[in-house]
Structure formats: C-alpha cells, structure tokens
Amino acid sequence: MLWVKSLHTIFMVTWFAGLFYLPRLFVYHADCGDEPGKARFVVMERKLFIIMSIGAILTAIFGIWLLLDYAWAAYRHTLWLQLKLFMVALLVGYHIWCAKLVRDFRAERNRHSPVYYRWFNEIPSILLVGIVMLVVVKPA
C-alpha cells in the first residue's frame, strides 16, 4: 500500500501544480491586450489543463484504491475522512470550473478581470491546507 500512497501523493502534487498555475495564466490572459499574446495563452491553458487532468485522474484512481483497500473500512465513521472527501469534491468542482474558463477564454468570452482570477487562484491553496492537515492530523 505504500507504493499506492506514494503514487497518489505524486499525482496529487502534479494536479496541484496545474491548479496553482492555470489561474495564473488566466490572470495574464485577462490582462493581455494583443491578439498574438491571447492566442499563445489559449494554447498554454489548453495544454496545461490536459496535463493537470491526467494528474487529477491518476490521483483519483490511486485515492479510490486506497479507500477501497483499507481507508473506508478503517475511517468511514471519522469526521476527518468525510471532511477530506468533501474538500476533494470541492476541488473536483474547481477543476471543472477551470475547464469552463479555459473554454470561455478560447471562445473569447472571458467576463472577469485579472483581480478576479487572483482571488480565484487562492481556492486550491485553501483546500490543499485543509486536506493535508486532515490527512496528517486525523482529528477524531
């Protein structure tokens, strides 16, 4: 199981790298005034979203494996696991929201300012802190 935990953690890190960087690209894209620059951001956002989606899928696969193998039986009645899974669900929702924003930028339908995306960029940081603290501390 340590191999599965390691792979889960590795792919979680790759997923979060994308979740941290993609909204940064949104900030720069929303602030970009020239068409060639906007076209470059569209390509960068699409490619990064694909890479981070692979990290998300593999994180989920190894996380479900851990849940099915031992975590659900051992911890299903604990609040920390339920909170962690809720926060992961929020993170998946954030990922889906990012997909919508990638499509909006590609179709030139962005309706938000760079400041909006700076705040939007903080959401995965908050969820990461909460998830890691719950997993490490495992409060009753």
Tally of separate domains: 1
- Strand % is under 5%
Main β-sheet, in a few words? none
Helix percentage: over 70%
What's the SSE pattern? HHHHH
Number of helices: 5
Mean pLDDT: 96
Overall spatial form: elongated
The radius of gyration over CA amounts to 17 Å
Structural class category: mainly alpha
Taking the alpha carbons of the first and last residues, their distance comes to 23 Å
Detail the poorly predicted runs. none
Beta-strand segment tally: 0
Model description:
It is built from 5 helices and no strands. Helix 1 (2-31) runs antiparallel to helix 2 (35-75) and helix 1 (2-31) packs parallel to helix 3. It has helices spanning 2-31, 35-75, 79-106, 114-120, 123-137. The model has no long low-confidence stretch (mean pLDDT 96). The protein is elongated and about 55 Å long. By secondary structure, the chain is an all-alpha fold. The chain has one domain. The protein is 86% helix and 0% strand.
